[in-house]
Amino acid sequence: MKKLKLFSKTYIFTMALISMIIIITHILIYLGLPKVYISNKEKESDNIIEDLIKEINKVDADIEKSFKLAENFSEKYNIKISLTLNEEKKTFQGHEDVDIYLDQNSVSDETIVLPDIKSDSIIKDYEEGITGSKSEEDFNQYININNSSIIKSKSFKTINDINGNIQMAMDLEAFTETRDVILKILPYSILVSLFIALIASYIYSKKITTPIKEICDVTKEMENLNKRAFCKVETEDEIGILAYNINNLYENLLNTILSLEEEIENVSKSEKIKVDFLRSASHELKTPLMSMHIMLENMILGVGKYKNHDIYLEKCKEVVNQLSKMVQEILDTSRLNTLDNKNEKIIDLSQIVNEIVDTYKLIAKSRQINININLEDSFNISIDEKLFTKAISNIISNAVNYTDEGKEIRIYIKNNKLIIENDCTPISNEHLEHIFEAFYRVEFDRNKSSGGNGLGLYIVQQILTITKLTYSFKPIKNGMKFEIDFNNKNII
Questions:
Q1: Residue 481: its pLDDT value, please?
Q2: Cβ atoms 411, 375 nearer than 8 A
Q3: Which pLDDT band, with edges at 50, 70 and 90, does 490 fall under?
Q4: pLDDT reading at 434 higher than 70
Q5: Average of pLDDT values for 278-287?
Q6: What is the pLDDT of residue 436?
Q7: Mutual angle of helices 173-223 and 238-301, in 10-degree steps
Q8: Which positions ≥6 away from 69 have C-beta within 8 Å?
Q9: Is it the case that residue 163 has pLDDT exceeding 50?
Q10: What is the distance of C-alpha 400 from the center of its chain?
Q11: According to the model, what pLDDT value does residue 413 have?
Q12: Opening angle at CA 475, ends 469 and 479, nearest 5
């Protein structure tokens, strides 16, 4: 039984249950029907006698009218009635006659049921009574019972204080015949019912187990992470709820797997970026270190121009300062990966920009660069002040370093965007693709001479990504334009 499939178990159990119900029902019908029928006939006989007594009282117990009423009742209900009034007795038979004598004393106010009394045996008893065992005087009524009958007797007193007695016999032959017919067709009824139960059990079991089998098949596909797997059961019962919950569970599982895959991919990218960054950093540090090493070694050996220690010691100091600055920016850049932008506070955009511009005005003036600021449309934003200041500072520093002498830098706000434009040679698309990469330089010699190390825009990109600000850096007619869009931030 344990190894059977769900359909087989359901089918066998359902069939057995229905079969048991059918058999028990047929047995109860066969056994209980006679009792119910006889009980109803008893009540019916009581009602007939009571009705007859009422009618007799209505005619003031008039003998002739009373006997007429008894005759009418016997014909109406097809029964045998024996009515006694003031010791005057008459018997009336309905449409059928039978062949039995009953002793007056054997019939009381209680019901008598005579089952399966055959005419032959009755006639035999009657003949024995004639021969001497019983005299005809011992019998005062003659009632025919072919198979079974209900005999009822009731004494009463009329409204005129006339003593009366009613005896009634109700034939049950029709019911007996019906019961015999039921007994004969009972096996066929059971067989037909069992056949219907066989088909009904199959349909029911199929109806119940099919959705469960479909769910089982789908979960097998889900086990193999088939993204198209879906429970199509659309009922609103517990099975439908189960299918719905499985679909939701599988969807959440797929989303979780997708998130993990994305996280793994992001981690891989992050690790690759770190490796590339460290490789680039080591390369950038190696060059000035090598330069300083050569100068110091030649100074020690007193080779050629390096004999002049005053000049080359100063150069070594510059290299050290350059290295120190680069190391600090590398450290700052590495720390960006650990920041989460949780130190947000409300700041005035124009105030931050003006403070940053003030630090670059002297450098710009030395190069005859004009900084034109228009922040009339400024607003407050909620952001990490330290990170945001670093990003804007790098953008403005980059603009100052790359603006041609005697040209202009324009800083203004338009449509909730901070825009920084500088007049310079526009950067080609070839370089723009890599402009935000760590240590990437467009013009290497110029960048080195100006102190640039290729980390400025890389840091800007990292910070703007952390703060969830969209940006763009693109060429314009006479230079470059950097835009920071604040529309996706809660402007206060």
A1: 93
A2: yes
A3: low
A4: yes
A5: 70
A6: 84
A7: 10
A8: 52, 55, 56, 59
A9: yes
A10: 61
A11: 92
A12: 115
Over range 214-226, report the average pLDDT: 82
3-state secondary structure the chain: CCCCCHHHHHHHHHHHHHHHHHHHHHHHHHHHHHHHHHHHHHHHHHHHHHHHHHHHHHCCCCHHHHHHHHHHHHHHHCCEEEEEECCEEEEECCCCCCCCEECHHHCCCCCEEEECCCHHHHHHHHHHHHHCCCCHHHCCEECCCCCEEEEEEEEEECCCCCEEEEEEEEECHHHHHHHHHHHHHHHHHHHHHHHHHHHHHHHHHHHHHHHHHHHHHHHHHHHCCCCCCCCCCCCCCHHHHHHHHHHHHHHHHHHHHHHHHHHHHHHHHHHHHHHHHHHHHHHHHHHHHHHHHHHHHHHHHCCHHHHCHHHHHHHHHHHHHHHHHHHHHHHHHHHHHHCCCCCEEEEEHHHHHHHHHHHHHHHHHHCCCEEEEECCCCCEEEEEHHHHHHHHHHHHHHHHHHCCCCCEEEEEEECCEEEEEEECCCCCHHHHCCCCCCCCCCCHHHHHHCCCCCCHHHHHHHHHHHCCCEEEEEEECCEEEEEEECCCCCEC
Whether the per-residue pLDDT at 104 is higher than 70: the answer is: no
Furthest C-alpha separation in the chain? 175
For the stretch 292-336, pLDDT in tens is: 888 888 888 877 787 787 787 888 888 888 788 778 777 777 666
**pLDDT > 90? residue 410:** yes
| CATH architecture of structural domain 341-492 | 2-Layer Sandwich (3.30)
Judged against a pLDDT cut of 90, whether residue 212 lies above it is answered with no
CATH number belonging to the domain at 37-173, selected among 1.20.1440, 3.40.1350, 3.40.1000, 3.30.450: 3.30.450
pLDDT of residue 32: 83
| pLDDT above 80 (res 233) | no
- Phi, psi (degrees; rounded to nearest 5) at 284: -65, -35
Which residue type is seen at 484? I
Nearest by Cα to 231 from 250, 249, 215, 254: 215
The domains of the chain are located at: 37-173, 341-492
Q: What Å distances lie between residue 194 and 19, 188, 404, 455, CA to CA?
A: 6, 10, 102, 88
Q: Which residue has the higher pLDDT, 285 or 247?
A: 247
Q: What is the pLDDT of residue 114?
A: 47
pTM of the model: 0.46
Query: Do the domains 341-492 and 37-173 match in fold?
Result: no
Give the C-alpha separation, 384 to 75, whole Å. Answer: 112
Query: Quick one: pLDDT band at residue 51, thresholds 50, 70, 90?
Result: very high
Average pLDDT of the segment spanning 38-64: 87
